[in-house]
Every structure is written in C-alpha cells, then in structure tokens.
Amino acid sequence: MSSDNDNSGIGFLTGLAIGALVGAAVALVLAPQSGEETRDFLRGKAQEAKGKALDLASDLRDMATNVAGDLRTQADTLGQKGRESVNKLRNRVNDAVDAAKHAAKHKVDELQND
Q1: Considering the chain, what is the average pLDDT of its residues?
Q2: Alpha helix (H) ranges present in 1-114?
Q3: Cβ(30)–Cβ(22) under 8 Å?
C-alpha cells in the first residue's frame, strides 16, 4: 500500500514537471516577440509612465501654486477688510467718547452756573 502512494506521488511530480516543461516550450514558441523586443517594449512603457508621472507632478505643482496665490489674495483682502472694520469701530468709539466728554462738560458748566 505504501508503494502505491509513493508511485502516485512520483507520478504526480513527473507529470507536473513534464507539464511545466511543455508549457514553457509552448510559451516560447507562441511568444509574439523576442526577449529583447519585450524588454525594449517594457522600457518604452516605463519611460512613457515616467513622463506621464512627471507631467502630472508638474500640473499638480502649478495647481498648488495657483491655489496658494488665490488664498494669499483672499487673506490679504480679508486682512484689509478687518483693518477697515477696526478703524471704523475705533472712529465710532472715539466719536462716542468725544460726545460723552462734551455732554459731561456741558452738564458740569450747567451745574456750575446754577
């Protein structure tokens, strides 16, 4: 019984090896290009992919530069509007303080004359 298992294992391995050799031979015979042509094709595709990646990186860099410029412009605009708002508020407060001082002085003068 052990002999049958050994024979079937050897038979399987032999069949596997023969199948692999036949598959490799068929692949070589039916290959559309030689090894050198395939390597050249792969090199060309790799160069093409590299070029596309560099173009994409350049496009992304340009987009980032444009977005950064737009954000800088918006930040400058918001900063200017903020400064204008602070100046308006400061003027209103100063006007209110001046009006209060004037009213207080007027009241003091009024009370002193009575």
Answers
A1: 85
A2: 2-30, 35-113
A3: no
